[in-house]
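FORM 7B - TANDEM STRUCTURE REPORT

SECTION 1: FIRST PROTEIN
SEQUENCE AND TOKENS:
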Amino acid sequence: MRTDSAPGGRVVTLTANPSLDRTLDLPGPLDRGAVTRLGGSHTEPGGKGVNVSRAVAAAGAAVVSVLPAADDDPMVSALHELGLTLASVPIDTPVRTNYTLTEPDGTTTKLNEPGPRLDEPALAALQRALLEHAATASWVVLSGSLPPGAPRDWYATLVRALRRTGARIAVDTSEAPLLALLAAGPESAPDLLKPNTEELAQLAGVPEEAVTADPEAALAAVATLHQRGVAEVLLTLGADGAVLSTADGQVWSARPPRVTVRSTVGAGDCSLAGYLLADLAGAAPADRLRSAVAYGAASAALPGSAVPTPAQVDPAGVTVTAGLPGHPTPAAAVPATGAP
């Protein structure tokens, strides 16, 4: 394992399946089978945990990115150029490349490679690096898909191992790893889970339309996550903002400021980063949600998988209410109290 010389940070992210994200700008709607002359292209280091790290670092907060990559991999070089602190586990296979096709109206199409297969020694080295840096962290983020070779319940295993570090744990994943995490019991439940509506529907075993069309059904599905041991649920709703629910029964909803969407890639990751930054600053739950939605909206207004700086984030433009979207409680609008 190679660790850069900078000290451990307050946030540690694990990106077990990182990627170089290549964004291709289409001049119009995708025309399958036709020759398309691109408006432009650019490549950025990515993967959900890496995106969180980039956004946290852009705000000036300390963060360590744990990931598998050779020292000479272009992924490592790109992250060094951004000034990120890395704890990298060397592997023989290059980091995968993911492709994003962006249309002028903001529609994005992603083509993701599976990533290199990690054997047991590589997985064990990643776990050791994660636990080492978690000992100095306030938050540990387990984010993204698992690479080929990792067991489906690896995130559940990591959550249990991380408990002894004292760091709080946030998880943002989907499909089989998400289902395995919640099936592993309360001892594997994270402090914060960040599903979108599709992932929430997967966990509840209902069609996505059931949670998007009926706020009460969405809240009931969120309640099942609390029953499984999850302390806080940050449910992202895309252009409709997000909902924050806590285990003590409090619920807030937030709508984003109006922005021109350029790319939604990484917007959810930036939302998670915004939430963590506000929490590190001691913000109340409503302002943690405000910061999350402001960061997600700012990300969506940027090209590719670019992450916003604090100067590009507009917390004051976010409307936060106590209660469900469209079903506020008598507390109505929640004023901002200085969240980042």
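SECTION 2: SECOND PROTEIN
SEQUENCE AND TOKENS:
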Amino acid sequence: MTRKTLSDITISVLDLAAISEGQTAADSFRNSLDLALLAEKLGYERYWFAEHHNMINVASSATAVLIGYIAGNTNTIRVGSGGIMLPNHAPLIVAEQFGTLESLYPGRIDLGLGRAPGTDQATALAIRGENFHSHHHFPADVEKLQQFFSSDNSDAKVRANPGEGLNIPIWILGSSTDSAYLAASKGLPYAFASHFAPAQFLTAIDLYRKNFRPSENLKEPYVLACVNAIVADTDEEAEYLSTSLLQFIAGVVSGRRSLLQPPVTNMDEVWSVYEEQAVKQMLGYAFIGGPSKLKTELQDFVMKTGVDEIMMASHIFDHQAKLHSFKLFSEVFKQG
């Protein structure tokens, strides 16, 4: 593995279009565009939305629509899904949607694919209807998508139009070793959800690299790690801002969902001991602090993992503080 410095690492953005207390989904979308414009200016490579459903604090359910909104109001940054939850959709529909996006914004669209439902079982039933109990073949559905995008599909009875013949990069997303084997076998780039599932991260990327088979899409393995990061001018300010993230994750753990909450001075008044332990376990790869602290921690992370790209997720209540966090994060990498 080639030794890398921070200046060698590509940086990107993951957005859930989180809704803060006192705001609406419309406010969240405007904030997303604001952040995307800043990210483009700062040199971030891509801006992805994650598909989630039935979460009052997450507005990224209509993922393809948001991708079009951001791509249509930016110029150079790549925009895509991190990811589209494939069991929720027929591959043909995904091919047509992303074929449309690629036709509108050529050379700027990414299609990240996940195998999870992105929601609870009751909502998954509402999404899938009669298909809920059918067995889903994620690898086969990925192959169907690749076929729909292929020029070789021109003689098939079912074709994706638009979509056919377009070069839309497909990424495999994952939080376990299963996804690592799939990405490796297909020679596709691999994006790992280490921002909420750190336990198998190192094992998964090692398996991916060892089992990688070069393809026409990718000659060498490519690893993207998604991490939580909250950066402020001082370590103390970042820790304070991070309590909004801690409350957000605690809501996931406990099932008590609420809009993104303002920071607090004492988390012990908010969570139980069990919730604290569960949240800290999920946030094994969270980078919280001032620029100096983050530089040291991120350099260690890059040396340990050898990742090619780091995607930043950041749940900060105050929008201006969030913009500042992404600015400081980019400066850490530029300074190397």
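SECTION 3: OBSERVATIONS ON SECOND PROTEIN
The mean pLDDT is 93.
Residues 237 and 289 are 8 Å apart (CA to CA).

SECTION 4: SIGNATURE
Preparer initials: ____
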